[in-house]
Design brief:
With about 280 residues, the chain is of the alpha/beta class. It is about 40% helix and about 15% strand. The chain contains 11 helices and 8 strands. The strands form 2 sheets. It has a 6-stranded parallel sheet with strand order 2-1-3-4-7-8, with helices on both faces. Strands 5-6 form a two-stranded antiparallel sheet. It is globular, with a radius of gyration of 17 Å. The chain starts with a helix and ends with a helix.
Length: about 280
C-alpha cells in the first residue's frame, strides 16, 4: 500500500463518514480524480482515490517510467484494489471510469461496495458488442500481441480520437498535457477479447445478491466506449435483484470526468450514491 493510499484510508476511517472509492482507467493516474474529491467531501463523504499496483506518483514520473505500470492485468489490479478496500472500516461507495468502470463492476460483484457507479465502462465477458470506434480507439494498445507486457502512451491524435473527441482541440490538448500517461496494454486486450476467452479475467458477477445498487453512465459521443457497450453492460447487470440503472449524457466523450463539464457527471454519480448511503 503506498503512503498516499494509506493516508487516504486512515483519514476515511477516522472521519466516521461513508468512504467513496474512485478507480481510474487507462492513461490516467489516481490524481485524475483530484477535482472530484473535494466535491464529494463537501457532500459529506470520505473520498479515496486509489492507485493501481506500481503506479507512479506523478504524471512526469509515469511518462519517464512506463515500465512501472507495464504488465498489469485486470485481475492484478482488481485484487490490488480489493486489498486496499479491505482496510476500510465501512463498506464504501465505488465509482470507476473506463477500465476503472470494469473494475468497479468486478469489485461490486465480489460484494465489496455498498453502491457503485461505472462511467463509460470497458466491457466484460457477455457484453457482445465490439464497435469499430472501440477497435480504432484501442488499436494502438492491442494491435501487436508482443505489447501485452508493455505500457504505451497514446499520441495526441490517438488520444483526441479515443478520449477527447467531443471537446475543442484546445481543451483536448490541455487534458492530454495535464493527465495522459502510459497505460498497460493487457487490460484493453483482455476486455476486447473477453468473449473469445472462457477463462478471461475481464468478467463480472452480475447475479450475486451482494452486488448492491449500480448506475452505468454513458457518454453519448464516446468513441472508446459508445452506448452499445455501456448498454450491453446494463443488459447483463439488470437481472440483479438490486437496483440497476443507466443514463446517457448526450454530447459527452470519454473525457467526461475531466473536461470543463465534469460537475454534471459528478453530480449524476453523487445523486445516485446519496439514494443508498
Amino acid at each position: 500500500m503506498s503512503a498516499t493510499d494509506a493516508e487516504q484510508i486512515d483519514r476515511a476511517n477516522a472521519s466516521g463518514r461513508t468512504p467513496v472509492v474512485f478507480v481510474h482507467g487507462l492513461w490516467m493516474l489516481a490524481s485524475s480524480w483530484d477535482h472530484w474529491l473535494p466535491h464529494f467531501e463537501a457532500a459529506g463523504y470520505a473520498p479515496v482515490a486509489l492507485t493501481w499496483p506500481g503506479e507512479p506518483a506523478t504524471v512526469a514520473e509515469a511518462r519517464e517510467r512506463p515500465d512501472a505500470i507495464a504488465g498489469k492485468t485486470v485481475k492484478m489490479v482488481a485484487d490490488h484494489l480489493a486489498g486496499l478496500m479491505g482496510v476500510l472500516e465501512r463498506r464504501p461507495a465505488l465509482i470507476g471510469h473506463s477500465v476503472g468502470g470494469l473494475l468497479t463492476q468486478i469489485l461490486a460483484g465480489r460484494g465489496l461496495s455498498a453502491v457503485s457507479v461505472a462511467i463509460d465502462p470497458a466491457p466484460f465477458r457477455g457484453v457482445l458488442a465490439l464497435p469499430m470506434s472501440t477497435v480504432r480507439s484501442l488499436r494502438p494498445m492491442i494491435a501487436n500481441p508482443a505489447d501485452r507486457k508493455r505500457a504505451k502512451l497514446l499520441t495526441f491524435p490517438q488520444f483526441r480520437y479515443a478520449y477527447a473527441n467531443a471537446v475543442s482541440e484546445e481543451e483536448a490538448r490541455a487534458i492530454y498535457d495535464r493527465y495522459a500517461v502510459p497505460a498497460p496494454c493487457a487490460p484493453p486486450a483482455q476486455a476486447a477479447m473477453a468473449n473469445l476467452n472462457p477463462r478471461t479475467e475481464a468478467r463480472a458477477d452480475c447475479r450475486t445478491a451482494q452486488r448492491g445498487p449500480l448506475l452505468i453512465i454513458s457518454g453519448g459521443r464516446d468513441n472508446a466506449v459508445p452506448w452499445s457497450l455501456a448498454n450491453g453492460a446494463y443488459k447483463r447487470q439488470k437481472g440483479n435483484a438490486s437496483v440497476t440503472e443507466i443514463v446517457e449524457l448526450h454530447g459527452r466523450d470519454h473525457a467526461l470526468t475531466l473536461d470543463s463539464r465534469w460537475r454534471e457527471v459528478a453530480d449524476t454519480a453523487l445523486a445516485f450514491v446519496r439514494r443508498f448511503v
